[in-house]
Amino acid sequence: MAATTGQGRGFTTFLVGLTLACVGIAYFSSGFGKPVFAIGLIIFVISLFGFLKIKPLEGKPAMNASPAVMKALGAFLAAFGWVITLFGMHVTDGTTGRIVLALVGIAVSLIGMIFVLPTAFNKNAIWKA
Amino acid sequence: MNLIRRCCLILCLVALGVSISAVAHGQAAAPVAAPTTAAAPPSAAELKDAAAKAPTTDQLKAGDPGGSITGTINDVAPSDPKVGLTSGDVANQVGQNKLGINFTWTLVCGFLVMFMQAGFAMVESGLCRVKNANHTYMMNFFVYGCGLLAYWLIGFAIQMGGAAGNSNLGGLQPLSSEHPLTLFGKTWGIFGGSGMFLTGHTYDVGVMVIFLFQMVFMDTALTIVTGACAERWKFLTFSVSSVLMGAFTYPIFANWAWGAGWLSQLGSNVGLGHGYADFAGSGVVHSVGGVTALAVALIVGPRIGKYNRDGSSNPIIGHDISAVLIGCFILAFGWFGFNPGSTLGASANGNLRIGSVAVNTMLAGCTGTFGALLYMWALKGKPDASMSGNGLLAGLVAITAPSGFVNPVNSCIIGLIAGVLVCLSCSFVENVLKVDDPVGAISVHGANGLWGVLSVGLFADGTSNYGGSWNGVTGSVTGLFYGDASQLAAQLVGISTLLGFVFTFSFLLNWMLEIFVGHRVSAETEMAGLDIPEMGQLGYPEFVFRAEPETMTAAHAMAVA
């Protein structure tokens, strides 16, 4: 089974929820902004659980589960590299020092992105079976 | 042996680049002409005299084939007809003309960028198999609507809600609510707040122009992801993911770079050159799209049959190379809106550099094509068409950030390197990372977008003058090779943010969607082709499908088992 009416209704609900939430944010300071935001958020969350409900009906994709901890580690390293760069701007005033720390940050991010994450996703890859 | 040959070719290309670079350095900057003394405003008598000399109605009735009497003082309307034309009226008309030129320029360039969607659709669909043509075209079609809606709802406000101050478009004063964060004693812009639904005080002529222009840029970033995930991405998840990217991922980084956010303040706050400088969006548009494409392609996984059990890859050939190359030309045409349009005007504030920006764009695209074509021809034996097209796009992507700051020779170097880089990156992504990217989007837009951002910090020659300052720092953006290493530092911070923040944010967002919605179609749907199961009709109903090669059917059996 592929595209279905359930998906179409779910996506419509998702858009309605997002739109109402945005209306709520736009008029948050006025009287009706907060309740509209809350209603939008609720509809938004309902749409996500609606997606979750119809997900098993859509057939098994050609992929296996991959280790979540390793994926989280990859994402963490990618973000941590950025943190190194940000703090590097403030721990030194020299341009060379900032460049070096930025390069270290980029390297750490790249380790997460192109070493840890692909390793995680390829660990149980379907083509290895 | 192959490695030695490859190294030799790369060395030759680098040597060519260095020799061209020497020529670039040899170009002397033109002497700056002394400013002329401003003329006094016309007196009432002079205006009256000019009005008297203007052509009469009878003269105009006779027609003006030479165009010499149309457009005179008679076409300037006095604010008070009883008083007649004043110097104030003339000055106001001059201001209106300036903004009229800039509005028209920006809008027309925005229309060109919008047309790039057609190019993306043709390139991506042409590089996919015929059984997925409708699905791939539909993703490229519908991403426009998803992005536009999300951007109108909230994305534009996050990105440009605090971007007031652009005199090219009348100041954009309604967009003046950037939410700041004070850190280490400095105030940094984090996200904007004005402009949701374009209502209230943002119902403004200038805001409408910047909305249209920025919206089509955002949509370009979104459509990059569809290429990397083509042939197996569930249409529902693509739609949800695109809406969220248009609402949050893209606007947040675009605010930091273009909307008075903290990256643009690196120069004024901590003395890093002119802050993060990205003239037309190698980073903001292409790298954001490219790193998001990598994040989603990792999650969605490779197509059935792409990899063998030993990890070697199988080529999966696209169905229409003519569509690919025509699509590339459409994209190259649209890029003349993308880069020169990013001046946001054609009148005043150094905007006459638009010619230089356009020439830089076409030159980098040219050398990008050469870089990729020669690399493939010399090392693989054939001037590969799809890789040549990707070389053109890589050159264009790379020149997007520096196009407003570099000279033509440096543009050629940037494009040439991009053309080689796209070949190396495609091979790396496919064979080392084992990430399946059917169209090479991660390499074309991600890798070369980052190269473009970096090249500003290296090649910016310090001759641009967009109103005398950039990101609030007086003077011209100048790179390492022209004396300012701190600009390189600012660019590296931008690159780190693209990798560390944008990638991680995109990855986590799409990981959440994987849990709730699931990114990938079923194995049966993938083997049948996505056109019928996902879209309900074939892209080419009268085509006779060839049977899949044995590697595919065997892989399918494995996947289903």
The figure for the number of domains of chain B is: 1
Shape of chain A: flat
CATH architecture designation of chain B: Orthogonal Bundle
* Largest sheet report of chain A: none
Number of helices of chain A: 4
Average of pLDDT of chain A: 94
Q: Determine the CATH superfamily of chain B.
A: Ammonium transporter AmtB like domains
Poorly predicted segments of chain B: 16-35
Oligomer: heterodimer
Q: Largest interface, and how many residues on either side? A: A-B, 59 and 75 residues
Gross morphology of chain B is globular
What's the β-strand tally of chain A? Answer: 0
**Element-by-element helix/strand order of chain A:** HHHH
**Structural class category of chain B:** mainly alpha
Instruction: Quickly give the structural class of chain A.
Output: mainly alpha
CA-atom Rg of chain A in angstroms: 22 Å
Beta-strand level of the residues of chain A, as a percent range?
Answer: under 5%
Folded structure, characterized:
The complex is a heterodimer of chains A (129) and B (561). Chain A is an all-alpha fold and 129 residues long. Chain A has two domains: 5-57; 68-128. Chain A has four helices and no strands. Chain A starts with a helix and ends in a 6-residue tail after the last helix. Chain B is mainly alpha-helical and 561 residues long. Chain B has one domain: Orthogonal Bundle (Ammonium transporter fold), CATH 1.10.3430. In chain B, 60% of the residues lie in helices and 3% in strands. Chain B is built from 18 helices and four strands. Chain B has a two-stranded antiparallel ribbon with strand order 1-2. In chain B, strands 3-4 form a two-stranded antiparallel ribbon. Chain B is globular. The relative contact order of chain B is 0.13. At the A-B interface, helix 1, helix 2, helix 3 and helix 4 of A face helix 5, helix 7, helix 9, helix 15 and helix 16 of B.
Short overview:
The complex is a heterodimer of chains A (129) and B (561). With 129 residues, chain A is mostly helical.
